[in-house]
C-alpha cells in the first residue's frame, strides 16, 4: 500500500505491463481508476478477457472507473461532451488556454474516494500513458503537479497505489518528456523499465526488463536493488528468464 510504480519503456512497447496490473488489481478486489489515454475501451477489454477479467462487468459493479481519453478528446474538440452531460470533462484543459490538470485530478479523487457502500480493498490509479498529456498541450509542470497531488491523495491519504506508464527515448530531443521521465524516476518506489534489444529484433526474445527497487528512498544509505531479465510475450502470458538463457538458446 502507498506505493508509486513507474512503468518505463524504451525502443519497445511496455503496454503488456499495463494489462498485467489492470487485471491483477481487479482480481485482487481493488477499486481501480483507469485513465486510458492511448487505446479504446474495447482494446483493453479484449486483452483483459484473454487474462480472465471482464472490464465491462467491473464497470457495472462499480469496481472500475474508466476514462476513455480518445473519446473524451474528440467529444471536447467537437463540443459534444458538455451538450450530452452538462458537466465539464476531466480533459477540459485541451479547450482552455490554461493547461492545469485540476479537472483530471478532481475526476481521480472523486472516483477513488470511498463511499459508505464500498467494500473494495484499496484504491488504485492506473495511467496509460502519461506522455500523451504533453502531446495534448499540458506543460511538464502541470503533469508533475497532477502526479504529485495524486500521490498525496491516493498513496498517503487513501493508502492506495499508483501505476503510471511513460515512454522514453534516451536519444530523443523531446526535452519535456525526458524531464517528466527523470522526475518520476526519482520519486518512484519501484521502476519496471522495459527496453528493446540493442541487437535488434529477435522472435524468441522480445526485450529486457530492468526491475529497480528504490531502497534509497527509505533513507537507509543502501543502494537500489536492480535485477535484469529478458522476456518473451506469448498470447496469454509473458515468460521471463535470465539474460542469454531463453528456451531457443538452451
From TrEMBL:
Pfam families: ELP6 (PF09807). It is found in: Cytoplasm; Nucleus. The keyword Iron-sulfur does not apply. Pathway: tRNA modification; 5-methoxycarbonylmethyl-2-thiouridine-tRNA biosynthesis. It comes from the Eukaryota. One of its GO terms (cellular component) is cytoplasm. CDD domains: Elp6. Keywords: Cytoplasm, Nucleus, tRNA processing. One of its GO terms (biological process) is tRNA wobble uridine modification. Belongs to the ELP6 family. PANTHER family: ELONGATOR COMPLEX PROTEIN 6 (PTHR16184:SF6). This is Elongator complex protein 6. It comes from Haliaeetus albicilla (White-tailed sea-eagle).
